[in-house]
Amino acid sequence: MTSLSVQQKIVSIAHALNLKGDPVEAIMEYCRKRVGRILKTARSVRTPWDLERAVCEELNLVIHDVSNDEEIDRFIHLYAIEENDPAFAALRLELADDACGVLFRRKRLTENGEYQYVAFIDCRGAKRLRRFFTRWHEIAHCLTSFQQYEMPFRRTTLTDIEKDPVEKLMDLIAGDLGFFEPLFQPVLNAEVTPGEPLTFEIVERIRSQFCPDASNQAVLAACAKRINEPIILIEAIVGLKKTEQRIIRQFPEAARTIQPQLRVRWSVPNSAAQDVSFQIPRYMRVPKESIITKVFLSEGDSNHFPGEATECLGWWTSSKGGALPITRILVQAARYGNGVIAIITRQE
Q1: What is the pTM for the complete model shown?
Q2: 11, burial (CB in 10 Å: exposed 0-12, middle 13-18, buried 19+)
Protein backbone atom coordinates (compact mmCIF):
# COMPACT_ATOMS: atom_id res chain seq x y z
CA MET A 1 0.00 0.00 0.00
CA THR A 2 1.42 3.38 -1.02
CA SER A 3 1.19 6.64 0.90
CA LEU A 4 -1.46 7.80 -1.59
CA SER A 5 -3.72 4.92 -0.58
CA VAL A 6 -4.33 6.35 2.88
CA GLN A 7 -5.23 9.84 1.68
CA GLN A 8 -8.86 10.60 2.44
CA LYS A 9 -9.53 12.07 -1.02
CA ILE A 10 -8.32 8.84 -2.65
CA VAL A 11 -10.28 6.65 -0.25
CA SER A 12 -13.40 8.71 -1.03
CA ILE A 13 -13.02 8.20 -4.77
CA ALA A 14 -12.60 4.44 -4.33
CA HIS A 15 -15.62 4.31 -2.00
CA ALA A 16 -17.79 6.35 -4.40
CA LEU A 17 -16.85 4.00 -7.25
CA ASN A 18 -17.70 1.02 -4.99
CA LEU A 19 -14.18 -0.39 -5.21
CA LYS A 20 -12.56 -2.74 -2.71
CA GLY A 21 -8.94 -3.36 -1.71
CA ASP A 22 -6.03 -0.94 -1.96
CA PRO A 23 -7.64 2.33 -3.16
CA VAL A 24 -4.91 3.33 -5.62
CA GLU A 25 -4.60 -0.10 -7.24
CA ALA A 26 -8.39 -0.53 -7.29
CA ILE A 27 -8.95 2.83 -9.01
CA MET A 28 -6.22 2.19 -11.56
CA GLU A 29 -7.58 -1.28 -12.32
CA TYR A 30 -11.07 0.22 -12.66
CA CYS A 31 -9.71 2.65 -15.29
CA ARG A 32 -7.83 -0.12 -17.13
CA LYS A 33 -10.94 -2.29 -17.34
CA ARG A 34 -13.09 0.60 -18.49
CA VAL A 35 -10.64 1.55 -21.24
CA GLY A 36 -10.20 -2.14 -22.10
CA ARG A 37 -13.95 -2.43 -22.74
CA ILE A 38 -13.82 0.64 -24.96
CA LEU A 39 -10.88 -0.84 -26.87
CA LYS A 40 -12.81 -4.05 -27.55
CA THR A 41 -15.78 -2.23 -29.07
CA ALA A 42 -13.83 0.49 -30.95
CA ARG A 43 -12.89 0.13 -34.59
CA SER A 44 -9.34 0.26 -35.90
CA VAL A 45 -7.43 1.29 -32.78
CA ARG A 46 -3.73 1.11 -33.68
CA THR A 47 -2.18 4.15 -32.01
CA PRO A 48 -2.59 5.95 -28.67
CA TRP A 49 -4.36 8.75 -30.55
CA ASP A 50 -6.90 6.24 -31.90
CA LEU A 51 -7.47 5.03 -28.35
CA GLU A 52 -7.81 8.58 -27.05
CA ARG A 53 -10.48 9.38 -29.64
CA ALA A 54 -12.45 6.26 -28.72
CA VAL A 55 -12.24 6.99 -24.99
CA CYS A 56 -13.24 10.64 -25.46
CA GLU A 57 -16.29 9.60 -27.49
CA GLU A 58 -17.35 7.27 -24.68
CA LEU A 59 -16.86 9.98 -22.04
CA ASN A 60 -18.52 12.80 -24.03
CA LEU A 61 -15.22 14.68 -23.76
CA VAL A 62 -13.72 17.15 -26.24
CA ILE A 63 -10.06 18.15 -25.83
CA HIS A 64 -8.62 21.36 -27.29
CA ASP A 65 -4.91 22.24 -27.47
CA VAL A 66 -4.16 25.92 -26.85
CA SER A 67 -1.03 27.21 -28.61
CA ASN A 68 -1.40 31.00 -28.16
CA ASP A 69 -3.44 33.72 -26.47
CA GLU A 70 -5.54 34.31 -29.59
CA GLU A 71 -6.83 30.74 -29.41
CA ILE A 72 -7.90 31.28 -25.81
CA ASP A 73 -9.93 34.32 -26.87
CA ARG A 74 -11.50 32.30 -29.68
CA PHE A 75 -12.54 29.48 -27.34
CA ILE A 76 -13.93 31.93 -24.78
CA HIS A 77 -16.06 33.53 -27.51
CA LEU A 78 -17.21 30.12 -28.78
CA TYR A 79 -18.27 28.61 -25.48
CA ALA A 80 -19.04 31.58 -23.22
CA ILE A 81 -20.79 33.77 -25.78
CA GLU A 82 -21.99 31.67 -28.72
CA GLU A 83 -22.85 28.65 -26.59
CA ASN A 84 -24.04 30.85 -23.69
CA ASP A 85 -22.00 29.01 -21.05
CA PRO A 86 -20.48 31.73 -18.80
CA ALA A 87 -18.17 29.34 -16.90
CA PHE A 88 -15.86 29.33 -19.93
CA ALA A 89 -15.24 33.07 -19.53
CA ALA A 90 -12.68 32.10 -16.85
CA LEU A 91 -10.53 30.12 -19.32
CA ARG A 92 -7.69 32.66 -19.55
CA LEU A 93 -7.46 32.92 -15.77
CA GLU A 94 -7.58 29.15 -15.31
CA LEU A 95 -4.67 28.64 -17.72
CA ALA A 96 -2.47 31.22 -16.01
CA ASP A 97 0.77 30.55 -14.12
CA ASP A 98 1.73 26.86 -13.94
CA ALA A 99 -1.64 25.47 -15.06
CA CYS A 100 -1.23 22.71 -17.64
CA GLY A 101 -4.90 22.15 -18.37
CA VAL A 102 -8.45 22.76 -17.23
CA LEU A 103 -11.54 20.57 -17.45
CA PHE A 104 -15.02 22.10 -17.78
CA ARG A 105 -18.45 20.54 -17.50
CA ARG A 106 -20.87 22.09 -19.96
CA LYS A 107 -24.43 23.08 -19.11
CA ARG A 108 -25.64 21.23 -22.19
CA LEU A 109 -26.47 17.52 -21.78
CA THR A 110 -26.40 14.79 -24.42
CA GLU A 111 -29.57 13.24 -25.81
CA ASN A 112 -29.11 10.53 -23.16
CA GLY A 113 -29.08 13.12 -20.40
CA GLU A 114 -25.32 12.78 -19.77
CA TYR A 115 -22.88 15.57 -19.04
CA GLN A 116 -20.56 16.89 -21.72
CA TYR A 117 -16.98 17.84 -20.88
CA VAL A 118 -14.44 20.12 -22.52
CA ALA A 119 -10.73 20.10 -21.63
CA PHE A 120 -8.17 22.70 -22.66
CA ILE A 121 -4.47 21.78 -22.75
CA ASP A 122 -1.99 24.65 -22.45
CA CYS A 123 0.68 24.10 -25.11
CA ARG A 124 2.26 27.52 -24.80
CA GLY A 125 5.98 27.62 -24.12
CA ALA A 126 7.53 24.78 -22.14
CA LYS A 127 4.09 23.43 -21.21
CA ARG A 128 3.83 21.90 -24.69
CA LEU A 129 6.25 19.18 -23.52
CA ARG A 130 3.49 17.83 -21.24
CA ARG A 131 0.81 17.95 -23.95
CA PHE A 132 0.40 14.19 -24.48
CA PHE A 133 0.52 13.46 -20.76
CA THR A 134 -1.84 16.29 -19.76
CA ARG A 135 -4.49 15.12 -22.25
CA TRP A 136 -4.55 11.72 -20.54
CA HIS A 137 -4.50 13.42 -17.13
CA GLU A 138 -7.78 15.17 -17.97
CA ILE A 139 -9.19 11.92 -19.36
CA ALA A 140 -8.32 10.31 -16.02
CA HIS A 141 -10.41 12.93 -14.22
CA CYS A 142 -13.38 12.09 -16.42
CA LEU A 143 -12.93 8.35 -15.97
CA THR A 144 -12.96 8.63 -12.18
CA SER A 145 -15.52 11.41 -11.77
CA PHE A 146 -18.37 10.76 -9.38
CA GLN A 147 -19.24 14.18 -7.94
CA GLN A 148 -17.94 16.30 -10.83
CA TYR A 149 -14.98 17.54 -8.71
CA GLU A 150 -16.14 21.07 -7.94
CA MET A 151 -17.31 21.48 -11.50
CA PRO A 152 -18.01 23.49 -13.71
CA PHE A 153 -14.22 23.33 -13.96
CA ARG A 154 -11.20 21.60 -12.49
CA ARG A 155 -7.76 23.09 -12.97
CA THR A 156 -4.57 21.03 -13.27
CA THR A 157 -1.38 22.78 -12.14
CA LEU A 158 2.19 21.58 -11.77
CA THR A 159 2.06 22.57 -8.10
CA ASP A 160 -1.06 20.46 -7.53
CA ILE A 161 0.53 17.48 -9.27
CA GLU A 162 3.42 17.75 -6.79
CA LYS A 163 1.21 18.12 -3.69
CA ASP A 164 -2.44 17.18 -4.18
CA PRO A 165 -3.12 13.42 -3.80
CA VAL A 166 -5.89 13.40 -6.43
CA GLU A 167 -3.65 15.09 -8.99
CA LYS A 168 -0.83 12.65 -8.20
CA LEU A 169 -3.22 9.76 -8.77
CA MET A 170 -4.45 11.24 -12.05
CA ASP A 171 -0.83 11.43 -13.22
CA LEU A 172 -0.35 7.75 -12.34
CA ILE A 173 -3.45 6.87 -14.33
CA ALA A 174 -2.31 9.04 -17.25
CA GLY A 175 1.05 7.27 -17.33
CA ASP A 176 -0.71 3.91 -17.33
CA LEU A 177 -3.41 4.60 -19.93
CA GLY A 178 -1.33 6.84 -22.20
CA PHE A 179 0.88 3.78 -22.70
CA PHE A 180 -1.95 1.26 -22.54
CA GLU A 181 -0.38 -2.18 -22.32
CA PRO A 182 -2.16 -3.87 -25.27
CA LEU A 183 -0.78 -1.15 -27.57
CA PHE A 184 2.54 -0.34 -25.92
CA GLN A 185 3.87 -3.74 -24.83
CA PRO A 186 4.34 -5.17 -28.37
CA VAL A 187 6.47 -2.14 -29.32
CA LEU A 188 8.50 -2.46 -26.12
CA ASN A 189 9.02 -6.21 -26.58
CA ALA A 190 10.28 -5.70 -30.13
CA GLU A 191 13.01 -3.28 -28.99
CA VAL A 192 14.09 -4.58 -25.58
CA THR A 193 16.05 -7.82 -25.21
CA PRO A 194 15.46 -9.54 -21.83
CA GLY A 195 18.51 -9.21 -19.62
CA GLU A 196 19.95 -6.31 -21.63
CA PRO A 197 19.94 -2.77 -20.13
CA LEU A 198 17.42 -0.17 -21.16
CA THR A 199 19.17 2.71 -22.95
CA PHE A 200 18.25 6.21 -24.08
CA GLU A 201 18.69 5.07 -27.69
CA ILE A 202 16.16 2.25 -27.21
CA VAL A 203 13.71 4.64 -25.53
CA GLU A 204 13.98 7.05 -28.45
CA ARG A 205 13.30 4.28 -30.98
CA ILE A 206 10.23 3.22 -29.00
CA ARG A 207 9.03 6.82 -28.77
CA SER A 208 9.37 7.36 -32.52
CA GLN A 209 7.38 4.19 -33.23
CA PHE A 210 4.70 4.39 -30.55
CA CYS A 211 4.02 8.11 -30.21
CA PRO A 212 6.46 10.82 -31.34
CA ASP A 213 4.23 13.38 -29.59
CA ALA A 214 5.01 11.93 -26.16
CA SER A 215 7.94 13.37 -24.21
CA ASN A 216 11.19 11.45 -23.74
CA GLN A 217 10.65 11.34 -19.99
CA ALA A 218 7.13 9.95 -20.29
CA VAL A 219 8.26 7.16 -22.63
CA LEU A 220 11.30 6.43 -20.45
CA ALA A 221 9.06 6.04 -17.39
CA ALA A 222 6.66 3.79 -19.30
CA CYS A 223 9.52 1.55 -20.46
CA ALA A 224 11.12 1.25 -17.02
CA LYS A 225 7.79 0.44 -15.40
CA ARG A 226 7.22 -2.56 -17.69
CA ILE A 227 10.73 -4.06 -17.60
CA ASN A 228 11.50 -7.01 -15.32
CA GLU A 229 15.08 -5.96 -14.47
CA PRO A 230 15.61 -3.61 -11.47
CA ILE A 231 15.81 -0.02 -12.72
CA ILE A 232 15.82 3.37 -10.98
CA LEU A 233 15.10 6.56 -12.88
CA ILE A 234 16.33 9.78 -11.30
CA GLU A 235 16.51 13.45 -12.11
CA ALA A 236 19.39 15.36 -10.54
CA ILE A 237 19.47 19.14 -10.23
CA VAL A 238 21.35 21.64 -8.11
CA GLY A 239 19.36 22.07 -4.93
CA LEU A 240 19.14 21.78 -1.16
CA LYS A 241 18.29 18.85 1.08
CA LYS A 242 15.08 18.97 3.10
CA THR A 243 16.66 20.13 6.34
CA GLU A 244 18.45 22.96 4.54
CA GLN A 245 15.18 24.04 2.93
CA ARG A 246 13.52 24.21 6.34
CA ILE A 247 16.42 26.22 7.81
CA ILE A 248 16.27 28.79 5.01
CA ARG A 249 12.48 29.12 5.34
CA GLN A 250 12.91 29.96 9.02
CA PHE A 251 16.17 31.91 8.71
CA PRO A 252 16.44 33.45 5.19
CA GLU A 253 19.87 34.89 5.99
CA ALA A 254 21.23 31.31 6.15
CA ALA A 255 20.99 31.15 2.34
CA ARG A 256 24.27 33.04 2.19
CA THR A 257 26.18 30.19 3.83
CA ILE A 258 24.32 27.07 2.66
CA GLN A 259 25.60 25.97 -0.73
CA PRO A 260 23.25 24.04 -3.07
CA GLN A 261 24.66 20.79 -4.46
CA LEU A 262 23.76 18.37 -7.23
CA ARG A 263 21.01 16.27 -5.64
CA VAL A 264 18.25 13.84 -6.58
CA ARG A 265 15.10 15.79 -7.36
CA TRP A 266 13.00 12.68 -7.91
CA SER A 267 13.73 8.98 -7.85
CA VAL A 268 11.45 6.28 -9.29
CA PRO A 269 12.36 2.60 -8.84
CA ASN A 270 10.34 0.12 -10.93
CA SER A 271 8.58 -2.86 -9.34
CA ALA A 272 11.57 -5.15 -9.83
CA ALA A 273 13.80 -2.64 -8.03
CA GLN A 274 11.33 -2.26 -5.17
CA ASP A 275 11.19 -6.05 -4.75
CA VAL A 276 14.95 -6.15 -4.01
CA SER A 277 15.05 -2.85 -2.06
CA PHE A 278 17.10 -1.20 -4.81
CA GLN A 279 16.58 2.53 -4.39
CA ILE A 280 18.19 5.95 -4.12
CA PRO A 281 16.46 8.40 -1.74
CA ARG A 282 15.16 11.73 -2.92
CA TYR A 283 17.38 14.76 -2.13
CA MET A 284 20.48 12.55 -1.81
CA ARG A 285 23.73 14.13 -2.94
CA VAL A 286 25.11 12.84 -6.25
CA PRO A 287 28.68 11.45 -5.89
CA LYS A 288 31.33 13.66 -7.48
CA GLU A 289 32.87 10.63 -9.21
CA SER A 290 29.57 9.58 -10.81
CA ILE A 291 28.98 9.95 -14.55
CA ILE A 292 25.87 11.94 -13.54
CA THR A 293 28.08 14.71 -12.14
CA LYS A 294 30.40 14.56 -15.15
CA VAL A 295 27.52 14.89 -17.60
CA PHE A 296 26.05 17.75 -15.57
CA LEU A 297 29.36 19.63 -15.67
CA SER A 298 29.97 18.93 -19.35
CA GLU A 299 29.65 21.75 -21.85
CA GLY A 300 26.91 21.82 -24.44
CA ASP A 301 23.80 19.71 -24.84
CA SER A 302 24.41 16.00 -24.25
CA ASN A 303 20.82 14.89 -24.87
CA HIS A 304 21.88 12.92 -27.91
CA PHE A 305 25.21 11.77 -26.47
CA PRO A 306 24.50 10.43 -22.97
CA GLY A 307 27.34 9.32 -20.72
CA GLU A 308 27.59 5.75 -19.42
CA ALA A 309 29.68 4.12 -16.70
CA THR A 310 29.76 1.11 -14.41
CA GLU A 311 29.76 2.37 -10.83
CA CYS A 312 29.23 1.30 -7.22
CA LEU A 313 26.01 2.22 -5.42
CA GLY A 314 28.09 2.50 -2.25
CA TRP A 315 29.53 5.77 -3.59
CA TRP A 316 26.23 7.38 -2.60
CA THR A 317 26.64 8.67 0.95
CA SER A 318 24.62 10.90 3.25
CA SER A 319 25.85 13.93 5.16
CA LYS A 320 25.65 11.82 8.32
CA GLY A 321 28.16 9.34 6.94
CA GLY A 322 25.81 6.54 5.94
CA ALA A 323 26.14 4.86 2.55
CA LEU A 324 23.94 2.83 0.22
CA PRO A 325 24.71 -0.91 -0.19
CA ILE A 326 27.80 -1.91 -2.16
CA THR A 327 26.13 -2.93 -5.40
CA ARG A 328 27.41 -2.92 -8.97
CA ILE A 329 25.32 -0.56 -11.11
CA LEU A 330 25.25 0.68 -14.70
CA VAL A 331 24.56 4.42 -14.86
CA GLN A 332 23.48 6.21 -18.04
CA ALA A 333 23.04 9.96 -17.82
CA ALA A 334 21.90 12.71 -20.19
CA ARG A 335 21.36 16.44 -19.80
CA TYR A 336 17.76 17.64 -19.88
CA GLY A 337 17.12 21.32 -19.28
CA ASN A 338 18.93 22.43 -16.13
CA GLY A 339 19.41 18.92 -14.80
CA VAL A 340 20.34 15.34 -15.61
CA ILE A 341 18.12 12.32 -16.20
CA ALA A 342 19.75 8.99 -15.33
CA ILE A 343 18.86 5.34 -15.90
CA ILE A 344 20.42 3.23 -13.15
CA THR A 345 20.40 -0.54 -13.68
CA ARG A 346 21.31 -3.06 -11.00
CA GLN A 347 23.88 -5.58 -12.20
CA GLU A 348 24.54 -8.97 -10.65
Answers
A1: 0.86
A2: middle
